[in-house]
């Protein structure tokens, strides 16, 4: 009888969630990937940021304009204010890899609709054909980078942590990563290319679990050079890799080899701007726009939420706020970094990613509402272990994005994706939470849920108050 118990438990699990197992078959993977691609395609049929709203339009126009600039101007002028490149109109403010991606996509658009990228005369260009091609560039980027990285991670994760055969569902975990409603709404609704930097980061995480540390270092350096917000994960990568190197016999050599890989990757990406210190500074200045303030729009981080009471932007100088942000951010992620340097572990690395990205989101300088995608990635990777936390974070992320998506007229997509996520999440997420509940303190869970609700109600009420008072601290920004 005792030998049959595991089989009975597996049957019960599968009855609650029919495709629940710890292996991903090719058929299951293809079905989930195709469904996720279909959802993205349907969302992309809707409106986008800044549609028909001159003079600045929105993120769609920003991406189109970057294609125009990279196609028609020399590489050394991409981050420089010139007659052909007015930086006050959607100047490039992401690292060089984003510019190279814009150039690659520009070749595609220019070959089909050259008038959509005509220098200085194509501002605000909107046509059905150009929208279709622009949307396809995001879909293809997602399909080529984020999708394979997600499949790879799900396979590796259950090889590493799911050996008992009863610890969860690999298909469910893959679905949670690919059907994150916040990422889909921002990339395929609002219009951005977060799937590239997040896909590179996810590939680096999978490489870490596969013990391919050089590959992981290259991929993560590429992610940082695509979007500087990928630095949110840097403390976790640094502490884990340093801790691993310190455990080896010749740790100096190991650290040196990783350093060469990192420096070499950065030099390769930044090569066009390394001919002078001034050229490199021009790029760096564009990547750190401190004059924009400590936060933008209705971002649900510490500074924005507390600004209902403390007027951070009015009371303190930029220099002091930068110091304060650095101090609070470092204080938030240093404990987990110390733990990983002292005793590195794969599971600890995943929690470290969540901790460091959350620390940056809550306390760093110049945070946007779209930055919630950074902590959401590691939260989705831990969805099997922490379903309650993941579910709450997705709901809170969607709440903080509501004003942005309302301006974009994406409320229908917002509601449908919210419902779809809940439908799939509760098929397995609640069951996984109940299985792991014995290892958690019920008091801690109740306290965490209460604190979460209080904080976000404060944020929501504060947002309404600010709208009523027309507070310039929270002036909406189309960026």
From TrEMBL:
**Where does the UniProt annotation place the signal sequence?**
none
Q: List the InterPro entries.
A: Glyco_trans_ALG6/ALG8
Describe which pathway this protein belongs to, using the record's wording. Protein modification; protein glycosylation
Entry keywords, A to Z: Endoplasmic reticulum, Glycosyltransferase, Membrane, Transferase, Transmembrane, Transmembrane helix
What residue intervals traverse the membrane? 24-43, 136-158, 170-186, 193-210, 230-246, 258-275, 315-337, 349-368, 388-406, 411-429, 444-462
EC numbers, comma separated: 2.4.1.-
Which cell locations does it reside in? Endoplasmic reticulum membrane
Q: Name one GO molecular function term.
A: glycosyltransferase activity
Pfam families reported for this sequence: Alg6_Alg8
Principal localisation: endoplasmic reticulum
List the record's Gene Ontology CC terms alphabetically: endoplasmic reticulum membrane
Membrane-topology descriptor: Multi-pass membrane protein
Family the entry assigns: Belongs to the ALG6/ALG8 glucosyltransferase family.
* Protein's name according to its UniProt entry: Alpha-1,3-glucosyltransferase
